[in-house]
Each structure stands twice: as structure tokens, then as C-alpha cells.
Specification:
The chain has eleven helices and no strands. With about 230 residues, it is an all-alpha fold. It has two domains: about 55 residues, Homeodomain-like (Arc Repressor Mutant, subunit A); about 140 residues, Tetracycline Repressor, domain 2 (Orthogonal Bundle), CATH 1.10.357. The longest helix is centred in the last third of the chain and has 23 residues. The N terminus is likely disordered.
Amino acid sequence: MVQANSGRKRRSRPAAGLPAITSALIVDAACTLTAETGVEDWTLRQLAAVLNAYPAVIYHHVGDREAVVAEVLERVVAQVHVPSDDLAWRAWFAELLTDMRRVLRRYPGVARRLAVHGPTVPSALAIIDQGVSKLRAGGFGDHSVLVYNHLLTQVCLFIAHQDDRDAAAEVRLRSSEVFSSYRDRADLPGLAEMGRLVHEIGQQPDGASRYFDEFFTFTLERALDGVAPLST
């Protein structure tokens, strides 16, 4: 029996008004999905649907999901501004890590990837080389790699914490209500102080954003305070 569509050809992408699939187009779409849902929360099938293509096309141009994620990480990390080499080590890292938070917060889950698995994409390797070299020049000697890893991990985990918090709005709300309920407890002064802060944050439309900006600055400064050159 002859099928009804026998002899009919599938329309090409240009004929259908669609752009040709390229590796860059695939990574563009993957970056968009990452910004919308987080790097761990999309599948190749979903990515293919966005592109109006088959998953096999993605494998052909880029590879499996981890290969696509690696390209997303490269694209994201490449957006981080690398400070001028003229800066002293502390100012250099303060500028780098502050801008890193700005970039990574746009792509949920990337910071956790970098903290847990380590960055191996080309743009990250360049940052590592400059960062470790900056620390060695600043007098950290053989501790330079440890100090670099400490600073980058602290910041990436801070960002991951904020990402996770944003993804669990209901849990966050319940926790805020619990802490706020203790704000007038004179018998628990420490808990009451925490409760007043949480309550105050919740009363302001941008309270959480402002709090995390201040908390990040505090965390970064204390991380930098906690390391000292072996020599000056």
C-alpha cells in the first residue's frame, strides 16, 4: 500500500522561513533556556523543540547535552570582565568577583557547576591563569592556587545559594514567616534580632535584592580579609 505522503519532500528550513542550524544558533538557544529555567533544567529534546529541529541535529553540530552545556559555560564565562593587570591583587579580585556575580546571576545553576565541577572552558582557563599569576606576584607564593580556589569557590557558592533561594519561593516564604514570628521574643534576643531583620526585608519591595547585595559585599570583603600574602 502506498502511503499518502509518498513522494512529498520535507521543506527545507530556508523554505520554511527558518534559519539554518549552526553550532552558534544551538548555543544561543541553550543560553536562553539556561537563563529562563537554569542550566540543569532543560533537556536536549526541549532545546530541539525551541530550534524546531531534531535532537540528532544538535548531536551533529555540537554533541550531547554535556557538550552543549560546556559551550553555554564558555559563552557565560566569556562575559565576565577581566580587570586591568595594573590593579593590586585585592582590587583585582574584588572587581573580578563582583562582575562574576553580575554575569552568573543571569544564568541560574552555572555558578554551582563552576563551584562543584571546576571551570575547564577556555575563557575560564585564561581567568585562572591571570588570577593565580596575580596572587603569586602579590606574595602568596605556593599558596596562590589554594587562595584562588578559596575565593572563587566562596563566591560561586554564594551565587548558587541565591539561585537556589530564588527557585524555592514557597519554602523561602515559609522560612521568612517563621523567623519573623520571633521578632518580639525578649526571652530569645538573638533570634528576635534575626526575626526583625527578616521582617524588615520582607516589608520592602526590593528588600531581598538589597539585602543580598549587602550580604555579597560583606562576604567578599571577609573572604579577601581572610587571606594574607606570605611575603610583602
